[in-house]
Amino acid sequence: xxxxxxxxxxxxxxxxxxxxxxxxxxxxxxxxxxxxxxxxxxxxxxxxxxxxxxxxxxxxxxxxxxxxxxxxxxxxxxxxxxxxxxxxxxxxxxxxxxxxxxxxxxxxxxxxxxxxxxxxxxxxxxxxxxxxxxxxxxxxxxxxxxxxxxxxxxxxxxxxxxxxxxxxxxxxxxxxxxxxxxxx
Amino acid sequence: xxxxxxxxxxxxxxxxxxxxxxxxxxxxxxxxxxxxxxxxxxxxxxxxxxxxxxxxxxxxxxxxxxxxxxxxxxxxxxxxxxxxxxxxxxxxxxxxxxxxxxxxxxxxxxxxxxxxxxxxxxxxxxxxxxxxxxxxxxxxxxxxxxxxxxxxxxxxxxxxxxxxxxxxxxxxxxxxxxxxxxxxxxxxxxxxxxxxxxxxxxxxxxxxxxxxxxxxxxxxxxxxxxxxxxx
Lengths: 184, 231
Description:
The structure holds 2 protein chains of 2 kinds.
Chain A: H1 4-18, H2 22-44, H3 47-64, H4 75-94, H5 103-108, H6 115-122, H7 128-133, H8 137-149, H9 153-159, H10 164-183
Helix pairs in contact in A: 1-2, 2-3, 2-4, 3-4, 8-10, 9-10
Chain B: H1 5-17, H2 22-34, H3 36-53, H4 63-73, H5 75-80, H6 90-110, E1 120-124, E2 134-139, E3 144-149, E4 159-165, E5 173-178, E6 185-188, H7 191-200, E7 202-209, E8 222-227, E9 229-230
Antiparallel strand pairs in B: 1-2, 1-9, 2-3, 3-6, 4-5, 4-7, 7-8
Helix pairs in contact in B: 1-3, 2-3
């Protein structure tokens, strides 16, 4: 998680960007592009598309910084969301499917001790931590595969040799359980 | 379609996850424009699921990404620097630029492709059981197969399940006895097994005496055969 002091700084930079301050924009890029690029690349599984998504995301941030407000989460999570949606759009528009870049997967198969688990445990403050444990393994895998790899219902259905209807209900139920847990 | 709270809740989550696609996604975006309540629900998920995104290790993007952003946002400025009264210098600079571009191109082409192993993923299922019995995945560079029991139930007391790679040709190759219950099994694949699996993509499970087959080939009935998919 990004610390509060950093979030305050990001908030100030984002304010600068909303006033079309180019210096603030460049500083913001220096601060957050690495995190955003990590996510784009994880999702896309390839450099070229990840770079394009990152470019598009920053152009969007430049034009829409004034639309950010605190109901949308921290500045970091707002920008990560922009990067993630843009990467998903490009993946779907190009119909690329990633074959490499596999840490995400290695963690999925591993109930305990994978890198994802480790970072979730390290970060005890993350609300999702305990809640993911309340899901059944298939619910959790389907949700994580969708989040980190951008899998559609059809792709999940193929990968898990399971009818689309069943996959859909794993995701739907899993998200319901997650929501109930997060609201507690 | 009516905007019931349940529907808003589940569609918002799927919208953020990205699994809501095509027309349904467009329709939901219209709902977002129409209703603050819908937008709030979307923001809730963007924040919560966003925590997953922040766990991905950062990666420095190449410098060219920033350059491209600047060019796209301020094209006039990028070209304005070239009219600085040093017009006489331009032809030679232009040549230099071409040379630099060619050099870049050579560098790019010569960069070795990172080695890529196909990643395999699949599930061992049984027709009358809703959840998969086991989930199988392969970790690319580690040549390791992970098998996670989901709905698998223990064999009879004096029996074990044994996992096999079924090659395109020849005898099945044993990967050993596999567990049911909560433990994830990790299997190291040696080169020949790895190569056979990559080619055939097929695994099978047989029912064997306790401890596994002693003959090196399946002796009991083959219970499941599954094909793995590239991720």
